[in-house]
From TrEMBL:
Cofactor: Zn(2+)
EC assignment: 1.1.1.306
SMART domains attached to this UniProt entry: PKS_ER
InterPro entries listed in its UniProt record: ADH-like_C, ADH-like_N, ADH_Zn_CS, ER, GroES-like_sf, MycoS_dep_FDH, NAD(P)-bd_dom_sf
All copies of domain Enoyl reductase (ER), residue ranges: 12-361
Family: Belongs to the zinc-containing alcohol dehydrogenase family.
Coiled coil region boundaries: none
GO MF term set: mycothiol-dependent formaldehyde dehydrogenase activity
Name listed for the protein in its UniProt record: S-(Hydroxymethyl)mycothiol dehydrogenase
CDD domains per record: Zn_ADH_class_III
SUPFAM superfamilies, alphabetized: GroES-like, NAD(P)-binding Rossmann-fold domains
Keyword Oxidoreductase recorded: yes
Keywords for the protein's UniProt record, in alphabetical order: Metal-binding, Oxidoreductase, Zinc
């Protein structure tokens, strides 16, 4: 029997989101119904609303969530009713070429939530990023649920489901930051700050935060940045070189997604360093570089998707580190809000006023 719950729906391109009654069916084979306890507001939800991702309206928004498994379908062994879980948007198949080569974060055949939830009139909903968790309950693939220590606050745990994982993973998984490394992070929003926290966790000796907004640089310090550079006031490439003995950083993380910051990241690394690209550019953006510079600089240039994370490995570990006081995830929760506040939260996010607004249910 389908259950009626409230959910935040984007009805059409650029239309304001609405809280609607939605129908959540019983879990089928391989599925789970999760009672959502918290779900963060991410830029990607806004992009769905604006039409930047797909035209498959209506969308059920929300994808940075934690909650308790209510029921599971046939054959589910990963989780059981009552488990406290963080949801992920890459339930890997375990069988494709990427999975078999040991790089499941590139899985070609992710098994995320299917389109089974509907509006009260039967209209099919598209769950954002295969989750749809701005809702009292949601139906997901069991592989999207990862059990973590239930003593963590749901608002904090949910953040690991997207932006915070992307940033921490960019530093520790993609960038491979190690003890004593110098790290520069360009762009200190939620993702960049998480990269700073990740670099700090990994034992980086110097963490240089770069942004155009002094308020962001102040917050970056509380996340573990040891130096800050306002790139409106000084050339960040020069500043990073100066702060690293003239060499450039061992790992540079770009968390903006613009041509000029991609360029800065490219030139701010040590010759043997690594550039990690997390910021997502738009399709029309281009970057021109002298080929001799591309050839002449060693090291590597990597992009990081979802922090190259393995949810079953990374989510419980990061929750444990947080509970031990070694990873200040609570600092990412700027405010807790209700389902009806999502539209207003988009506005605040757009103005750069918050790291994360988190819907708490
Ligand atoms: N140089 C340095 N920093 C900049 C610049 C610039 N030219 N332009 C913007 N910024 C800073 C902003 O001041 C802000 O602090 O980049 C930060 C971007 O942060 P948010 O808008 O909060 O975005 P966030 O959620 O952190 O995501 C950053 O990562 O995963 C991707 O899609 C995401 O592309 C986005 C990026
Ligand atoms: Zn796969
Ligand atoms: Zn997201």
């Amino acid at each position: 029997m389908a259950q009626e719950v409230r959910g935040v729906v984007a009805p059409g391109r650029n239309e304001p989101v609405r809280v609607e009654t939605i129908l959540v069916p019983d879990p089928g084979p391989g599925e789970a119904v999760v009672k959502v306890q918290a779900c963060g507001v991410c830029h990607t939800d806004l992009h769905y609303k604006q039409g930047g991702i797909s035209d498959d309206y209506p969308f059920l928004l929300g994808h940075e969530a934690a909650g308790v498994v209510e029921s599971v379908g046939e054959g589910v062994t990963e989780v059981a009713p009552g488990d406290f879980v963080v949801l992920n948007w890459r339930a890997v198949c375990g069988r494709c070429r990427a999975c078999l080569r040991g790089r499941p974060w590139y899985c070609f055949d992710t098994h995320n939530a299917r389109q089974r939830m509907t509006l009260a009139d039967g209209t099919e909903l598209s769950p954002a990023l295969g989750i749809g968790a701005f809702a009292e309950k949601t139906l997901v693939a069991a592989g999207q649920c990862t059990k973590v220590d239930p003593s963590v606050s749901p608002a904090v745990a949910g953040l690991l489901g997207c932006g915070v994982m992307a940033g921490i993973g960019a530093a520790i998984n993609t960038g491979g930051v190690g003890r004593g490394d110098s790290v520069a992070v360009i762009g200190c929003g939620g993702v960049g700050d998480a990269a700073i926290a990740g670099a700090n966790l990994a034992g980086a000796a110097r963490i240089i935060a770069v942004d155009i907004d002094d308020r962001k640089l102040e917050t970056a310090r509380t996340m573990g940045a040891t130096h800050t550079v306002n790139s409106k006031e000084s050339d960040p490439v020069e500043a990073i070189r100066e702060l690293t003995g003239g060499f450039g950083a061992d790992v540079v993380i770009e968390a903006v997604g613009r041509p000029e910051t991609y360029r800065q990241a490219f030139y701010a690394r040590d010759l043997a360093g690594t550039v990690v690209l997390v910021g997502v550019p738009t399709p029309e953006m281009k970057l021109e570089l002298p080929l001799l510079d591309v050839f002449g600089r060693g090291g590597s240039l990597k992009s990081s998707w979802y922090g190259d994370c393995l949810p079953s490995r990374d989510f419980p570990m990061l929750v444990d580190l947080h509970l031990q006081g070694r990873l200040p995830l609570e600092k990412f929760v700027t405010e807790t809000i209700e389902l009806t506040d999502v539209e207003a939260a988009f506005e605040r996010m757009h103005h750069g006023d918050v790291l994360r607004s988190v819907v708490v249910l």
